[in-house]
Amino acid sequence: MVSISLEQVGVSLGRRTVVRNASATFRAGTLAGIVGPNGAGKSTLARAMLALVPHIGRILVDDAEVATMPRAELARRVAYLPQGQTLHWPLTVERLVELGRLPHLAPMSRIGDADGAAIERAIARADIAALRERVATELSGGERARVLLARALAVEAPALIADEPLASLDPGHQIDVMELLHGEARAGALVIAVLHDLTMAARYCDRLVLIDRGTIVADGTPAEVLTPANLKSVYGIDARVELAGDWPTVTALGRSR
């Protein structure tokens, strides 16, 4: 079990303030979506949770501040799937997924039986067994996205932060990935995903955090966050929000006037 807490977090990149006074607590067993328009600060906030960018305020993984945690320990606690990773080395898919076990390995040590079992579980969960002998640099965008997700899953950390995990995926594989992330949360993990597809976020996420210009403007269930008023204020659109089963669906009608 793990939790991530933000206390008045701010991030500046150069002279520009990207995240302002962000406070929230994310707990195990939850799939939380971070949503907002392009440039709102979603990915920067996700990176701050991993101490990948300097920040003010406090970010805690359980009771430990991420800024002072040893990097290997943080990597074992919180796995990370960054967006849009470019692959440069012609590794096989299996070898690439094996890299997810690095936080658990001492220098110069080899993959052990427990590591091998974790790798096999990740390959099965991401449904990439048919790709395992392929060269990763020769994969399509959608195949690459699933392989990189498998690498993150191979860490078997109690928390996972996924930045735009649906990018480059067709609708079927988008559903597969969201089902997988939802399943990880139901199994007790904390999963935080940066998402653009609001209806997909509403369907699978327990909670949404809506960011606009670096500020958290709404935090709650999808029905509480994805209101026509919030969509107009943050995205500048008129939208129809309807209930489909237990989750809202969002249809953009046009730019607000």
TrEMBL record:
Q: Fetch the SMART domains from UniProt.
A: AAA (SM00382)
Any one GO molecular function term: ATP hydrolysis activity
Keywords, in A-Z order: ATP-binding, Nucleotide-binding, Translocase, Transport
Q: Which residues form the ABC transporter domain?
A: 4-238
InterPro entries in the record, alphabetically?
AAA+_ATPase (IPR003593), ABC_transporter-like_ATP-bd (IPR003439), ABC_transporter-like_CS (IPR017871), P-loop_NTPase (IPR027417)
Family from the record: Belongs to the ABC transporter superfamily.
- Protein name per Swiss-Prot or TrEMBL: Iron complex transport system ATP-binding protein
